[in-house]
Specification:
This protein is mainly α. The longest helix has about 130 residues. Component of the F(0) channel, it forms part of the peripheral stalk, linking F(1) to F(0). This is ATP synthase subunit b, chloroplastic. It is a single-pass membrane protein.
Length: about 180
Amino acid sequence: MKNVTDSFVSLGYWPSAGSFGFNTDIFSTNLINISVVLGVLIFFGKGVLSDLLDNRKRRILNTIRNSEELRGGAIEQLEKARARLRKVEMEADRYRVNGYSEIEREKLNLINSTSKTLEQLENYKNETIQFEQQRAINQVRQRVFQQALRGALGTLNSCLNNELHLRTISANIGMLESMKGITD
């Protein structure tokens, strides 16, 4: 540090008349050159540097402002998307509940219609069984009646002779004439 101050102080002691020479002390001359360059840069570069910093500051502020606007827009879009999501979820829940209700209702309708169909089939089956039983009973009765009639005719034919046959016919004719007389 002492060398620096000595070099500035020694400038005042240089003889100004007649001699010109080179200063071979590198440290003292570089320091002087650097201080002159820095002084010129500060004096002339102050405005340029100030303008550059102001422009940079404006760009940063504009970027921040644009970012805030974009952030606000993004938040607004996010809220709209959330509202739509809530609406869609509520609608999906409503469809799900309605779908489950519809499925249950269709299931009950199917069970009821199947039950009714089974009941009708059971009734048809019972009616068919009763009809077939009645038909079988009638067929049996008819055969029994035919056999009884054949047996009775066989018995009558074997037991009746001509005289008994004529008396039966006469008795029947007499009954018919008496009935005719009553109705007249």
